[in-house]
Each structure stands twice: as C-alpha cells, then as structure tokens.
Amino acid sequence: MQILFLNEESSIQLLLDKVYFRSHMGRIRRVIGRRIDYLAKWLLKFRIISGPAKVIASSGLAWSFVSRTDRIRANRLKDRIKQGTMPEHVSIIMDGNRRFAWDSKIETKVGHKKGKEKLKQVMDWILDLGIPYLSVYALSTENIYERSEEELDALYDLYYNGLNEMAEDPKIHDNEVKVKVVGRLDMLPKNVRMAINNVEKKTANYSDFLFTVCLAYGGREEIVDAVRKVSEEFASGKIKLDEINTDRISNNLYSSEVPDPDLVIRTSGEERISNFLLWQIAYSELHFTDVHWPSFNKKDLYQAIESYQNRRRRYGG
Ligand code: FPP
Ligand code: MG
Prior knowledge:
Blueprint: H1 2-43, H2 47-57, H3 60-82, E1 89-93, H4 97-104, H5 108-129, E2 133-137, H6 141-146, H7 149-168, H8 170-174, E3 177-182, H9 190-203, E4 209-214, H10 219-235, H11 246-251, E5 263-266, E6 285-288, H12 298-315
Parallel strand pairs: 1-2, 1-5, 2-4, 3-4, 5-6
Helix pairs in contact: 3-12, 4-5, 5-7, 7-9
The structure holds farnesyl diphosphate and magnesium ion (MG).
The site of farnesyl diphosphate (FPP) has 20 residues, from helix 4, helix 5 and helix 7.
C-alpha cells in the first residue's frame, strides 16, 4: 500500500513536472523567437549583413518551410470560409504584373505571362469553391491608349493563346464553364477577336459557371453604350421616357445575364476602381491586397472571401 501510494505520488509529480517543463519550454521558445526577430531586424540595418540575411531568407529550406505553413494555413482558412456564405460573383482587377516583373528583374512581357498563368490557377480555385460567377479586368480602354505597341502586342498574344487554350481546356468543359468576353471588342486585333469567337462558341451551351473576361473594357464606356441603346429605343418610339429606369440600363449592359459582383478584389496595393464595372459595383464589397497579381495565392483569395463574409455578417440584412 505504501509502495503504491509512493508510486501514485511520484507519477503525479512526474506529470506535473512534464506540464511545467512543456509550458516552460514553450515560454523559452517564444522568448528566443522574439530575440531572434529583434536581432534579425537590427542586423538588417547594416548593408553588409542584409545580403546574406536575404539569401538565407530565400533559401530552399526557408522557402519550403514557409510554403508548407502557408499551405496548412490556406487549408484551415478554406474550411472556415466553406462554413460561411460564399459570394456568388467575384470580380478581380488583376494589377501589378509589371511591378512584379521589375521586382523579379524579368521582362515586362514575362510578368504578364505569369499573370496569365495565375489567372488559370485562380479559375481552378474559384471552381473548387463552387463560386458560379467570376469576372476579370484583363485590359482597359485606357491601357490601349497608354501602353507601348510592344507591350500591347505581347498582351494580345497572351489573350489570343489564353482564350484558344480555354476553348480546349478539359477543366472548362468538365465544369461546363461558359466564357464571355466583353468590352469594345472592335478595338482589338482580328486574331484576338477570332479567339474570342472560338471560346465563346465552344462554351456557349454551358451554364454551370460563367467566366467573364473584360477586354478593351471601360465602365463609363459600357454605360455610354447602354444609354445609346436605350436612346435608340426611345427615339424609335419603342419605349416612353418614364420607361427609362435602372433596370433598363442594367439590361442593356454588356453582361446583363451576370448578377452584380458581391466582392471585388484588386491586387497590388492600389485602392481604386479604375473604370471597372462602375454601374455593377454599387453595393459590392471591395477588398484590396498588396500582393502583385502573379504572386496572388490561395490564401489571399480565401482571406478576401473571409473579409467579405465578416463584413456581410456585420452589416447584413
Ligand atoms: C495589370 O498589370 C495587368 C494587365 C494590364 C494585363 C492583365 C492580363 C493578364 C493577367 C492575362 C490575362 C489573360 C487572358 C487569357 C484573359 P499592370 O501592367 O498594370 O502592372 P503594374 O500595375 O505593375 O504596372
Ligand atoms: Mg497597373
């Protein structure tokens, strides 16, 4: 009995020791972590140290650690947002391809190519979340006037290839994604218009998902074009003045079959709308993120959706 008592006491003591040891170690680890952070910040002030520090920070080991923890975080976030109300329509202003290229010391056109590859990935993530409407701003009317001929040619090549690839992409067909391209399409070269016809024709009968690409697009131009159509109806006597209302303008926009966006995401730090879907975003939630479009990752998308869900919960009704 005595022996048993002693054993029980010592095993409880052992357990207490273990708990104390673990929490003590946890505290020590946190303190060491904070000290290392502090030291690293201080060392990075010196030019001679910042070089090797950056090399270590971007080494394979550091990268695999960061991407592993990122993946875990993204999966957790995905589980969380799946429990909330998903936006029905997500719109994206894909900004920052050139800044990404300049930062990475690659050619501008390679930055745009990375942007095109990113779009393919993001489409997969959107399909995976079951969000039925996605629209993206791929070229504005202003871009056509302001970008160099060389850059525009590289972009037109990307649209030509990208749209033709979409027309054959098994993911588009398996998920029954209808692809529509909207904007002042007559401003685009002939081969891009042919690629648009190709992808629209090959996906015309689908309706599970709708993917809208805004090309040579401007929100003001879209409103002007709608007003012109409505004015024609009025001038020909088809409609009366008091039949001109918001619904009639909405129904004459380029993509009248698409509901207004619930969430607009803009990458690359600019907090502007830049003539994108001006009429349709009257009640949309706006989310701005600092990452350049080619670096946009799953976690960034899920965070945008989570912030949309939090805001809708707060202001809901
Ligand atoms: C904005 O970045 C991006 C564009 C003007 C082009 C976006 C095009 C793609 C992502 C390819 C889309 C492909 C298909 C098939 C639809 P920016 O050039 O303004 O970069 P910056 O803000 O850093 O200058
Ligand atoms: Mg830009």
